[in-house]
Amino acid sequence: MQKVQMFDLKPRVDSMEFRALLTELHYRPEPAKLERELENYRSRPDYRAFGCERNGRLAAFAGLHIRQDKEIEVRHLIVDAEFRGRGLGSALLNKLRTAFPQYSFTAETDRDAFEFYRRCGFEVSSLGEKYPGVERFLCRLPARNH
Q: What is the structure's pLDDT at 52?
């Protein structure tokens, strides 16, 4: 697993690199949804974004919804295509678990990503076909201090 230096991305939410990562993987066909998510990260204290850099640029980020019930929903966990497959996503997730040990983590994902979460220790269960032709999965990881 790579060693990562994690930092708060709130000051960089409006940067082109943050927007580009989010757009590329999630919101290319839906600019209105992209703007809503960016506004959440910009203005809501319960939405946080953390990232890490490689070669002087944003290489990965995790967008979180930190709930009052001591649960963190991983809204986004994105690694730039140039840096995928090198353990950066799992290192960032591990850093977050260390920063928030009293929180459990959840993520809803698709078939392409649930194995990543399983390798990181999450329990994975199918939510069924949530959208026509698209099976979704719920990934859960208990708090570290339990």
A: 93
What 3 state SS string does 45-114 have?
CCEEEEEEEECCEEEEEEEEEECCCCEEEEEEEEECHHHCCCCHHHHHHHHHHHHCCCCEEEEEEECCCH
Q: Domain containing 121 — which CATH number?
A: 3.40.630.30
146 has pLDDT over 60: no
Q: Is residue 112 part of a domain?
A: yes
Q: What are 63's strand-pairing partners?
A: 49, 76
Instruction: Compute the residue count for the chain.
Output: 146
If you average pLDDT over residues 64-83, what whole number do you get?
Answer: 94
Q: Which domain range does residue 72 map to?
A: 7-141
Residue 56 confidence (pLDDT): 87
Kindly state the average pLDDT of the residues 86-102.
94
Cα separation, 73 vs 44, in Å, equals 14
Tally of domains within the chain: 1
